[in-house]
Amino acid sequence: MAFNHLRAGVHDALAPLSVTPVTHSVPMAKNHRSDRPPTDPASRPAPGAVLDRLASGPSRASRITHTEHLPPREGRHAVWPDRIRAEVVAAVRAAGIEHPWAHQARAAEHALDGESVVVATGTASGKSLAYLAPVLSALLDGAEAPNGRGATALYLAPTKALAADQCRSVKELSHPLGHSVRTAVYDGDTPFEEREWIRQYANYVLTNPDMLHRGILPSHPRWSSFLKSLKYVVVDECHTYRGVFGSHVAQVLRRLRRLCARYGASPVFLLASATAAEPAVAARRLTGLPVVEVADDASPRGELVFALWEPPLTELHGEKGAPVRRTATAEAADLLTDLTVQGVRSVAFVRSRRGAELISVISQERLAEVDRSLARRVAAYRGGYLPEERRALERALHSGELLGLAATNALELGIDISGLDAVVIAGYPGTRASLWQQAGRAGRSGQGALAVLVARDDPLDTFLVHHPEALFDQPVESTVLDPDNPYVLAPHLCAAAEELPLTDEDLDLFGPACEDLLPQLEAAKLLRRRTKAWHWTRRERAADLTDIRGEGGRPIQVVESGTGRLLGTVDAGAAHSTVHEGAVHLHQGRTYLVRSLDLEDSVALVEEAAPPYSTVARDTTSISVLETDVEVPWGDGRLCYGSVEVTNQVVSFLRRRLMTGEVLGETKLDLPPRTLRTRAVWWTVTEDQLDRARINPEILGGSLHAAEHASIGLLPLFATCDRWDIGGVSIPLHPDTLLPTVFVYDGHPGGAGFAERAFHTARTWLTATRQAIASCECDAGCPSCIQSPKCGNGNDPLHKRGAVRLLTVLLEGAPEEKETQEQPPGGSGEPSEHPPGP
Question: From start to end residue, where is composition biased (Basic and acidic residues) (predicted)?
Answer without folding.
Answer: 65-77
